[in-house]
Amino acid sequence: MKPTLTPLLVTCLLLLSACASHYPNQEVANQMFPRVSGETLSQEPVQLPDHFKGQHTVVLIGYVQNSQFDIDRWLIGLDMTGTRAPVYELPTIAGLFPQFFETQINDGMRKGIPKPLWKGVITIFDDGERVQAFTGNTNPNNARAMVLDESGQILFFHDQGFSVDALNRLRGVLPDEMKSE
């Protein structure tokens, strides 16, 4: 019989180890997104930022389960404003311990996310520490919202929680064809 983890245990593991090291928040606008590996919930391996090359892309990074609330506000705001840029969620979990439970964590996310959206969720485990050190992980409940240009350069970065002003600034760096008419 294969042992399984309950959703409560998975949640506890995430909360205890997602931000094992603390990094001060950084201003990363105008820098290149770091080269990291991830996997979509549909189990496709991806290299970032190469996966986004050739188009402006909105990236919403979450470091702990509670950042999903902030990510959802960003997603609703982008939808309500008719923003047509591709949007990816990047659950980014640092530490060695969560890597042992990567399959169970991804399976738990798949249960809560409709299958057609799985390609838009890229989990980062192996390089999670690198991403957290790059942006900082102070106030981990706040999503890290970014706009990357065609080459992977960060045109917009915000880590202070969703606000209408931040949404408008994010939309301000997008090409006109990615905004509502």
Architecture overview:
This protein has 181 residues and is α+β, with helices and mostly antiparallel strands. The chain has one domain (17-174): Glutaredoxin. It contains six helices and seven strands; from the N terminus they run αβββαβααβαββα. It has helices at 7-17, 67-80, 96-100, 102-112, 128-135, 164-172; strands at 36-40, 45-48, 57-62, 87-91, 122-123, 144-148, 154-158. It has a four-stranded mixed β-sheet with strand order 4-3-6-7. The protein has a three-stranded antiparallel β-sheet with strand order 2-1-5. The radius of gyration is 16 Å and the shape is globular.
Largest sheet: 4 strands, mixed
Give the percentage of residues in beta strands. Answer: 15-25%
Q: Could you give me the name of the CATH homologous superfamily?
A: Glutaredoxin
What is the H/E string? HEEEHEHHEHEEH
Strand order of the largest sheet: 4-3-6-7
Helix content: 25-40%
Number of strands: 7
Low-confidence stretches: 12-19
Give me the CATH fold name.
Glutaredoxin
| Rounded Rg | 16 Å
- In the CATH scheme, the class would be Alpha Beta
> What is the 3D form?
globular
**How many domain regions?**
1
Helix count? 6
Mean of all residue-level pLDDT scores: 85
Describe what is shown at a glance.
The protein is α+β, with helices and mostly antiparallel strands and 181 residues long.
Kindly list the characteristics that best describe this protein.
four-stranded mixed sheet; about 30% helix; about 180 residues
